[in-house]
Specification:
flat; alpha+beta; 26% strand; 4-stranded antiparallel sheet; 6-stranded mixed sheet; 412 residues; Rossmann fold; Immunoglobulin-like
């Protein structure tokens, strides 16, 4: 049972899950850590604050790169430890630094006529400033119990607080200029380079210029700030190139490979054929049981069987396993439907297995013929009078809906 549902409706019900928020892709480095303080619902109906807090906590993992840490804290105890009497930014900054997070989210609910106003703030713990404040009027009924509509609202709020509102810039210079700039593994331009709308967090920047050593740096992007990188490129010493010795090519003898492959294909064809025979036998037994159930059902219905003559006399409807609604619930009819459907499935399986057996068999014959031809051709090439050279062989078995084909191409 969740901790919040076990507490009373006093204003001291708070939950502080520590969260690691990936506001960019994983390749962008370490995520931004975010702490969530439970919403203050002391000024409204009991339980509203807990319901909204649970909804925020439940939807935080929906954002990319975000995960919830298992630890929890009581806000009243945290305030008591730090001597805080309200939710001022300096007090919340102390709380955030104690939790070792980069940003802190907290808020409250207050009444406004028949509706309620939800206010949520996002605090930058590093400099103690509130970077984003969100205030929205919400119907009272929406905060009374968990719902899909409340989850959608929380997802929109969290995106505005943690993703859409957190952007920063970077300026990259190099000496000499003209170095290729790659941002998180993607080439984006050459120095001097500037970008003004990057996700908050760590980004990997790589500089490359011919004749100079490669430079890799990690730039920490902060909301509404521009980070500057100035790099002095070092000349790369020339190293004598050593050509790798060429390894003599080794021709592949395809004859034994194809011969053993044909044996394997024959084996697969045999296995598929045996399985098809077994499936066919099981299908026949299922059809016999279904027919017996139909005869029994006609006997049970007696004169009433005339009412279902359109079903009993129609072979197509009997094969489709779909009878009149009036027979549904009859134990004999239900047994017929079960055996009929089982027979249809087994028939489909048997047909597929026969097709597979034929396909493997054809592929095995084609492979064996190809091996025979290659062996004969190799014997001719080994003759002193022959100057032909077998360059390569390409064999491509292909399965199509109506059968199978084998494409073989030999280059001289």
């Amino acid at each position: 049972m969740p901790l919040l549902s076990m507490r009373s409706s006093s204003c001291l019900r708070w939950l502080i899950p520590a969260l690691l928020v990936g506001t960019s892709a994983l390749a962008q480095g370490a995520p931004t850590s975010v702490g969530l303080l439970a919403v203050d619902g002391s000024a409204v109906e009991p339980g509203m604050g807990a319901i909204l807090t649970d909804a925020l906590r439940r939807n935080l993992p929906q954002l990319q790169g975000m995960r919830i840490e298992p630890r929890t804290h009581d806000l009243a105890e945290v305030k008591m430890v730090f001597g805080c009497g309200d939710d001022r930014a300096d007090c919340m900054t102390k709380v955030g630094r104690n939790l070792e997070v980069n940003r802190l989210i907290y808020g409250s609910i207050r009444k406004q006529g028949a509706n309620h106003v939800v206010q949520i703030r996002q605090l930058n713990v590093s400099d103690g400033t509130v970077e984003k404040t969100l205030s929205e009027t919400v119907p009272k009924q929406l905060l009374m119990q968990p719902s899909l509509r409340l989850d959608e609202l929380c997802q929109r709020w969290l995106r505005m607080l943690l993703i859409e509102g957190l952007r920063g810039g970077v300026v990259v210079n190099s000496n000499p200029p003209g170095a290729l700039v790659s941002l998180d593994g993607q080439p984006v331009g050459r120095t001097p380079y500037a970008a003004s709308s990057l996700d908050v967090g760590n980004h990997v920047i790589k500089l490359e210029l011919t004749g100079y050593n490669q430079v890799v740096r990690t730039a920490q992007i902060r909301g509404n700030e521009t980070t500057s990188l100035d790099e002095q490129l070092a000349t790369r010493p020339e190293q004598p190139s050593v050509a790798a010795p060429e390894k003599p090519g080794r021709a592949i003898n395809w004859v034994p490979v194809l011969r053993y492959s044909s044996y394997a294909l024959y084996g697969l064809a045999g296995v598929a054929a045996v399985a098809a025979i077994g499936s066919w036998g099981a299908m026949s037994k299922a059809e016999d049981r279904a027919s017996a159930h139909i005869d029994t059902l006609i006997g049970e219905l007696g004169p009433r069987a005339v009412d279902y003559a359109a079903f009993f006399g129609n072979r197509g409807r009997l094969s489709s396993c779909q009878g009149p609604d009036g027979l549904v619930g009859n134990s004999t009819y239900d047994a017929y439907v079960s055996d009929c459907q089982s027979g249809n499935r087994l028939a489909s399986a048997a047909s597929g297995l026969w097709v597979a057996a034929g396909t493997f068999g054809i592929a095995g014959v084609a492979t064996m013929l190809t091996a025979h031809y290659l062996k004969k051709n190799a014997a001719e090439l080994s003759s002193p009078a022959s100057e032909k050279t077998l360059s390569s062989l390409r064999v491509l078995p292909t399965i199509v809906p109506n059968g199978a084909m084998v494409h073989a191409a030999i280059d001289f």
